[in-house]
Amino acid sequence: MAMAALRREGRRFLLPTASSAPTIAARSAISNEESCLFGVRSISTQIVRNRMKSVKNIQKITKAMKMVAASKLRGVQIRTEASRGVWQPFIALLGDSPSIDVKKNVIVTVSSDKGLCGGINSTSVKVSKALFKVYSGPEKEPKYVILGEKGKAQLVRDSKDHIMLSVSELQKNPVNYTQVSVLADDILKNVEFDALRVVYNKFRSIVLFIPTVSTILSPETIEKESEAGGSLGDLDLYEIEGGETKSEVLQNLTEFQFSCVMFNAVLENACSELGARMSAMDSSSRNAGEMLDRLTLAYNRTRQASITTELIEIISGASALEG
Amino acid sequence: MSSTAAVPFWRAAGMTYITYSNICASLLRNCLKEPYKSDAASREKVHFAVSKWGNGKPEKPNISRLLVLKAVMPSECLHYLYF
């Protein structure tokens, strides 16, 4: 009896709003519950529904990002694979000697401008920090040159005193050789070095990126090394055409080598970034889907429970009147 | 025709091999005919921002754009390249 009174009370409370806005009657049962300010009998599902909506939107966004990354990746991957032929002759001629010990080391960290691409930026930062430790010692202090916002943000925290240059907005236009070579030129003009160590993520496949270090020696270092023999000792076997001296040729060669290696490094890193973004966005849209399933289940359960309660109320009220 | 004798001249002008080769490449691109010319020109776009760091702080970024190649090429350099 008391229950029925409460029910009538509630209906009376609702009536004025229903008459002033006739459309309310057309709304679903759930929204009618929502507008019931007095004596809320069931749990509000508003929060869950909002949550579901936002998760759905996030899923849409991550799916779109995945598609964009996938379509961009195809073009960049072809160019990256083509660019590998650019530095290989230099390895044949000058070799790659990461273990060489010199005074002035400059670590060139290649990272991306945008986030949401898995761990590729923190990998290259980690490798750069490790290199920093390896090459630092008495009377020698490595310096950083950073490409990309994300690497900068990570390195600023604990090694901002060692940063010499930072470069960003490199990927506004599609990466081309001219752009990277102008950048390489800028770095060469602003930095004194015996060896440049370029750190980047080499693209192997969509899910596999290998942190890589390429070493570029200064012409003086190469000359010293080739005189001392070792891996660069064979350099004297080459004949030099024209009236140039060996040091002039070496200087031109190292400058060109640096721009070529940078070109490849920037492309490889861009390719890895897109691949990483693709797989990250894939897993996040899958996660969003799972979350949505859980929320839908919870939502339906609550809805059903409230319907059941209402039915029980009606039936028990009716039987109380009868009995 | 550029000859090997040109090297000391562009070195003396403060150019690196990269700048020199870029200028040569840009000249070569200009020799192309139209449908290919604009295609090649799109590969010439330069855009990035460099900032030098001092005392653990970045200075104002210096934004490089397309103008780089044309700007560093005074007419005397062209002269060396052609003759």
Automatic annotation (TrEMBL), chain A:
Subcellular location as annotated: Mitochondrion inner membrane
GO molecular function terms noted in the UniProt entry: proton-transporting ATP synthase activity, rotational mechanism
Membrane topology: Peripheral membrane protein
Keyword tags: ATP synthesis, CF(1), Hydrogen ion transport, Ion transport, Membrane, Mitochondrion, Mitochondrion inner membrane, Transit peptide, Transport
A Pfam match: ATP-synt
GO cellular component: mitochondrial inner membrane; proton-transporting ATP synthase complex
Quaternary context: F-type ATPases have 2 components, CF(1) - the catalytic core - and CF(0) - the membrane proton channel. CF(1) and CF(0) have multiple subunits.
Similarity comment: family membership: Belongs to the ATPase gamma chain family.
NCBIfam families listed in its UniProt record: ATPsyn_F1gamma
Function: Mitochondrial membrane ATP synthase (F(1)F(0) ATP synthase or Complex V) produces ATP from ADP in the presence of a proton gradient across the membrane which is generated by electron transport complexes of the respiratory chain. F-type ATPases consist of two structural domains, F(1) - containing the extramembraneous catalytic core, and F(0) - containing the membrane proton channel, linked together by a central stalk and a peripheral stalk. During catalysis, ATP synthesis in the catalytic domain of F(1) is coupled via a rotary mechanism of the central stalk subunits to proton translocation.
Protein name according to UniProt: ATP synthase subunit gamma
Organism for this UniProt entry: Platanthera zijinensis
Source species taxonomy: Eukaryota, Viridiplantae, Streptophyta, Embryophyta, Tracheophyta
Automatic annotation (TrEMBL), chain B:
GO molecular function, one term: proton-transporting ATP synthase activity, rotational mechanism
Keyword Ion transport: yes
A family per Pfam: ATP-synt_Eps
Main location class: mitochondrion
Record keyword Nucleotidyltransferase present: no
GO cellular component, one term: proton-transporting ATP synthase complex
Subcellular location(s) of the protein: Mitochondrion inner membrane
Keyword tags: ATP synthesis, CF(1), Hydrogen ion transport, Ion transport, Membrane, Mitochondrion, Mitochondrion inner membrane, Transport
Biological role: Mitochondrial membrane ATP synthase (F(1)F(0) ATP synthase or Complex V) produces ATP from ADP in the presence of a proton gradient across the membrane which is generated by electron transport complexes of the respiratory chain. F-type ATPases consist of two structural domains, F(1) - containing the extramembraneous catalytic core, and F(0) - containing the membrane proton channel, linked together by a central stalk and a peripheral stalk. During catalysis, ATP synthesis in the catalytic domain of F(1) is coupled via a rotary mechanism of the central stalk subunits to proton translocation.
Family of this protein: Belongs to the eukaryotic ATPase epsilon family.
Complex and partners: F-type ATPases have 2 components, CF(1) - the catalytic core - and CF(0) - the membrane proton channel. CF(1) has five subunits: alpha(3), beta(3), gamma(1), delta(1), epsilon(1). CF(0) has three main subunits: a, b and c.
Protein name: ATP synthase subunit epsilon, mitochondrial
Organism: Platanthera zijinensis
Lineage start: Eukaryota, Viridiplantae, Streptophyta, Embryophyta, Tracheophyta
